[in-house]
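Let us practice reading a record.
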Amino acid sequence: MISMTGFAARRGAGAGYGWVWDLRSVNGKGLDLRLRVPDWIEGLEAAIRTELQKAIPRGNVSLTLKVAPEEGGGDAGFPLNEAALGAALASLARVEAAAIAAGVTLRQPTAADVLTLRGVIEQGGQETDTAPLRAALLADLPALLADFVAMRSAEGRALAQVLSGQLDRIAALTAEAQAETATRSATQADALREALARVLAATDAVDETRLAQELALIAVKTDVTEELDRLTAHVAAARALVADPAPVGRKLDFLMQEFMREANTLCSKAQSLALTRIGLDLKTVIDQMREQVQNVE
């Protein structure tokens, strides 16, 4: 099992530059990639996006890359747009002033942060060839992805343990409900006999056919055998999915809906305080499990 929650960070250097990667993700229905990379490195964003799509099937993923020339390294021929730089610094000053007025403390941006702002690096400079830098960055990307996937796998193993424990609880509650159903049947039978005796004592004209139909209807409305059987089957199906190495998040999410449907029906048919309590406990565990399932890839 793989979790959609993950994080990885990495530092690197090459081609006269240093860089810092930051890659993180949370759950999502599909794959949503949000990249913040230097736009002055030609072709970099498209190449990174392609690699991320290969490695990450699902989740809301954000990647930030900060690149700056190393001291004595790649600053020669590093074209700055002075007008854009001035505008960026002025904007940062206005943001900081507004934050101070609102009582909010902001982290001071570094030079590397400023360089990643759009337009600060001059586009199309003839003296700057970004191909070596792009190649160095793309060569460093697989190590970042390996760390990221490893963390998501570790989170997935922990998530599988949590889900297994919740399935154990659902199975125990289902068994408890089956035992309570047997007790309830005897109680219901006594109650029906007493009610029938009162009806027969109150009137001489009893439509036996109508009476049989009403008794059969009561039996059908309160029978929870099918619901308990389906809960048992759903537990077995969920255990198989938890053990499956393939992405199973969507299947588990659908199965959670089926679990809740059976628990709701059990509560509506309970006809006893003990069985109602078990049904409510089931709904609580299922709801907790559904929250965990949202993080499964």
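A brief commentary: Strands lie at 6-14, 17-26, 31-36, 59-69.
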